Amino acid sequence: MSQDNLIKFECTECKQTGYYSHKNKKTLKDRLQLSKFCKWCRKHTPHKETK
Fold first, then answer.
1. What is the pLDDT of residues 7-32, one digit of tens each?
2. What ranges do the domains of the chain cover?
3. Are 32 and 7 in contact (CB under 8 A)?
4. Architecture field, domain 3-50
5. 23 partner at 20 to 30 Å CA-CA among 4, 7, 33, 44?
6. For the whole prediction, is pTM greater than 0.85?
7. Ramachandran region of residue 15, left (φ > 0), alpha (ψ -120 to 50) or beta?
8. Per-residue pLDDT at 1
9. Which residues pair with 49 in a beta bridge?
């Protein structure tokens, strides 16, 4: 993955970073929020995009 399009996803409950992805920053201006499985909480939680 290229570093300029790389984004991190942080769990909203425990604040751990567990997922990395990429997005087109020209077309998607706002931050993503996806429901992902957190291995620290051991359940599906919302994950927000961080810087």
1. 999 999 999 998 999 998 889 889 99
2. 3-50
3. yes
4. Single Sheet (2.20)
5. 44
6. no
7. left
8. 59
9. 9
